[in-house]
Specification:
Two copies of one chain form a homodimer. The first copy, chain A, is of the alpha/beta class and 342 residues long. Helix content of chain A is 43%, strand content 16%. Chain A is built from twelve helices and twelve strands. The structure holds a DNA duplex (30 and 30 nucleotides).
Chain lengths: 342, 342
DNA sequence: CAACGGCTTGGTAGCGCTGTCAATATCAGT
DNA sequence: ACTGATATTGACAGCGCTACCAAGCCGTTG
């Protein structure tokens, strides 16, 4: 015996079609590909939809079409300001489009990332944005078999899964060190925290620049796996000074550490940059207005997020982006904290 | 003529049920309410699902059940560190649960918020977390008619739509000012940016405390609608000094402004706190490690997000939370920047 | 031993939309 | 006028799951 579940008064596509005097499938086309309709029908469906206040049921659409309009985003941290900027770019790019974001936090674990990847892909996302180029072998294999656009963000490297947008952390760090060397600094320390793959590559860039200049000394390096913070920056700087009291500059793998180092200098009444130069990484907003102003490596985080999302959309709309791999570059912002040694 | 669209080799609930030797509906129950099955069937379905690597199709589930397992979250900003902490709490609370997050950014516009609210509710979310208590009348009306749990976060106030968790920005600001007064400061300025409703209430708290102590003077207030930043903090502080050169303390409606003010003091060679006390708001991590350390009002942002999400889940699971309105309080962190006047 | 109630299980249909193909309308070219 | 190509439109079934109701099973009760 049939028990109808028809919900009364609910506005479905059928209702819109009926009011517009067309078949449901025609009304459906209006929402997905309006150009396919004749002018008359298009106008009729549009006004019918407006009159009834129709809102498509996304679950039904997803079920029938076997795909969703959700773009999955995997980032390692919600706290890190760097990703806040990237996210803002992504959300801005998708504003007004039909696509929405499903965000997940890998907590810097590639196993967690793999788990989330499986979870996402099971729901057939329209696209995917993942952080970095260090996925597990299984993650890579999974990503290579799915047929949705995938953008790896935050860095560039060989063998993109699909598309890629970022910059070279190695080159950026190397440029920062070269700047310090040019300014006359020689005993340049490095402070690192978290040590995720991108930070590791900044360390490699540091090592390369120092080695090239015959200045490399492992005692100048202090790192920890602990998550980064301003307070930690102060601690690391103190550790470094204890290990190598003769340093004349310090390169911090991010700006929080740089700020912490600056405060620690102040506590010790060390003059910046006269006794100690400081360079950070990312160029967060406060770097330009501290006292003294802090040098840093500017990275284009907002653009990265925005372009990544746009690359996904373009691909979905059949307009393959010009280049699958985009290097957004960086710029060394030379400020007071690394002024030329006198 | 029928054209079957059956996807070969795809694992649906039917496949799991067949392998387990039960009906599809029994298998379905296993995933939603395993206790309802007998021990034998439960084990059989479980092993069948594992063997086949079955993953439920959420779109089909949503369509059939007329509801989703998505909790909508409306926040005004993605950049603001404050919301990063709240979000982290929300994501942490939902980790491992069946629920997922749909995040949207209102950009501090209640009209945008209303638009997003309609968008969300059309998809029948399982729950909703919205920021603040200043919604449009229409937003309120909409929220009151839907029957999903709703939590308003960031502040507490009268007449919750459903549930509420936060603290009193008025009381928190008032406590900060009282602290300064107790410490011996009299000409206490206020620096404000963005001036969203919560910042406005902090300003009200400031005004109330100053008036109570017969210290209120409108010339001590400098505010702007511009979004907040450290740089802006410096600018506002300079403006305030120009307007009221005799101030001996400054209350900043957030920590970025406080940091900017601190740097501006340093540039002007003003001693903190001897010539100028500074108190911020939110107690971001860096406040405890600056030089001098900066006083601030600690707010429990992570807990706010976490508890809000937990309140939604509890309600969904039929265990109504103990209290619909939770005041998480605050604490004035007294540090060097507001040390007692000597 | 029939009646009852609680627990578990299953059959059926439908959630609202779109893929697939077919049918019709329109139009240019010969 | 006829052919073939293109643009519009429609009919139908099915996407994978769950709500609804019914039915079977069991032990208990008087």
């Amino acid at each position: 015996m049939a028990r109808k579940r028809i919900t009364p008064g609910k506005i479905r596509l059928t209702e819109v079609a009926k009011l517009a005097g067309v078949s449901p499938i025609t009304a459906s086309r209006f929402f997905r590909n309006p150009e396919a309709l004749s002018d008359g029908k298009r106008a009729r469906v549009e006004s019918a939809a407006n009159e009834l206040g129709y809102v498509p049921n996304l679950a039904a659409r997803a079920l029938a079409s076997q795909r969703t309009e959700v773009i999955g985003v995997l980032i390692p941290s919600l706290t890190n300001n760097v990703f806040a900027d990237v996210l803002r770019g992504i959300y801005d790019a998708l504003e007004g489009s039909r696509y929405s974001i499903q965000l997940a936090n890998t907590r810097y674990s590639i196993l967690q990332e793999e788990r989330l990847l499986r979870l996402f892909l099971a729901q057939k996302p329209a696209g995917l944005i993942v952080t970095g180029i260090n996925q597990t072998a299984d993650s890579r294999a999974i990503m290579e078999t799915v047929d949705c656009p995938i953008v790896q963000i935050m860095e560039v490297g060989p063998a993109p899964v699909d598309m890629m947008i970022g910059f070279s952390h190695f080159d950026a760090a190397k440029a920062a060190i070269s700047h310090l060397i040019v300014q006359g600094y020689r005993r340049i320390g490095l402070l690192g925290a978290r040590m995720d793959p991108r930070v590791q590559r900044r360390l490699d860039g540091y090592r390369s620049a120092m080695t090239d200049a015959a200045l490399f000394d492992p005692r100048l390096i202090v790192t920890t796996a602990v998550p980064t913070s301003v307070t930690l920056g102060g601690t690391l700087f103190a550790d470094l000074l204890a290990k190598a009291p003769d340093i004349d500059a310090v390169f911090c793998v991010n700006d929080d550490i740089a700020l912490g180092a600056l405060f620690e200098c102040k506590r010790r009444h060390m003059m910046v940059p006269d006794q100690m130069a400081i360079v950070g990484f990312n160029d967060l907003e406060f770097m330009a207005s501290s006292e003294p102003t802090l040098s840093s490596v500017r990275t284009n985080r907002y653009e990265m997020g925005r372009n990544a999302a746009m690359m996904v959309i373009e691909t979905l709309e059949g307009r393959r982006p010009a280049a699958p791999v985009v290097d957004l570059g960086f710029s060394v912002m030379e400020r007071q904290s690394s002024a030329r040694r006198t």
